[in-house]
Amino acid sequence: MEKYLINGGKPLQGEVEISGAKNAAVAIIPAAIMVKGVCRLENLPQISDTDTLLRVLTYMGAVVRTINRSTVEIDCTNVQIDRLPADMWALTRRIRASYYLIGAMLGRFGAARSTMPGGCNFGVRPIDQHIKGLTALGADVNVSGGFIRAAAKSGRLHGARIYLDKVSVGATVNIMIAAATAEGRTVIENVAREPHIVDLANFLNSMGADVRGAGTDVIKIRGVKELHGGTYALIPDQIEAGTYMAAVAAAGGEIRVSNVIPKHLDCISSKLREMNVQIEDGDDYVIVKREGPLRHTNIKTMPYPGFPTDMQPQISAVLCCADGVSIVTEGVWDNRYKYVDELRKMGAQVQVQDRVALIQGVPHLTGATVKACDLRAGAAIVIAGLAAEGATYVEDIRFIERGYQNIVGKLQALGADIQCVDVPDEPEELRDDWIAG
Ligand code: EPZ
Asked: Which of 38, 154, 313, 424 could cysteine-pair with 229, CB 3.0–4.6 Å?
């Protein structure tokens, strides 16, 4: 089984280049279905979630051309949805973003079908706000047999005024995509304001849509007849950048995180500064340095511009090595602490009650064999391994590779002793002796 082997305790030095934003890419690739022409996407992250979505579009009849490592051209002129191959559903079941196919197919064809989405397991992940918005746009939506089916009652969606009961990235994305070619005007209120929402709006507008207000809590869309091809470069990944900032906070040292938008990192930088991490903002980079002891702090995750929930596991791993007691409150998901059991195997002192984690910092963590429970939990375990004394084996690394391009290579370039190894699965009782020996 492929695992990461990390020998921790080494400070990080050097420069890391951030890739394109995963959560922008997984919204923009489905949105390309709306375009009768070629979409050239630049700064696309090379991760398994984007590969999966590009394969799904190919099954639908899109022509995908890889130009280079971070640039693809997608031609959806001949996409059709009435003969979707069964193999495609094995892919759509894997990822959360597959439900964006519904908004895109509805917007292009007036009808849509896809499986219920997969994605990280944080407890209940409803889609009622997606259904509320698409229904308001004139679609009949039903869920049965593990599939979502939708059809515009009059053949084409129409504009509507929609108030989201919950700030939802996914519902905001899905409704925005579908409304781009609906007849008339759509106003969506109480929308998500994440950087990747703005990126999607900018992509749609560069393809001829008329979307205004993205980044505020009200988005206004004037439907257009159809979208044309064009070129679009994605924003850098706020969470990938934050993950490397947390890594140097935990391991110590000084790194330059390049190809970022510092404004998107404000919430992360301000918390790290409270923890005695020095951060200097450049135009498109940040310099992050930690040499003295980490200080405890309290964090509550919120929709943007609050502290991002997708940084909660990573910052909690850092707080395990901070002086004093920290309180982390998960403000978005019901159950996003599965990774705590893995940190405890490394000596972390964490108590969890519902959405609150109480973290008592310890002088150091110790290496162990641990699992990545999901994408960001896996990143947290890697961060803990970088700080820990001794060897850490990280299993189930497929979760990490869904959202982090070349994480091993990027960390090696920062001086981390990490490698991807293929080792047999040891019986539980032998593992620690085997590693300790
Ligand atoms: C997106 O998930 C991200 N995934 C998640 O990132 C991220 O954690 C989340 O937004 C919050 O920022 C992608 O973009 C692919 P939501 P999404 O709809 O869209 C409730 C990562 O690590 N809700 O914003 O599924 C929901 O239960 C991943 O990159 C409803 O009640 O999240 C949650 O409490 C993990 N009804 C809250 O809203 C709905 O119809 C926010 O969910 C939809 C959501």
From this structure: 38
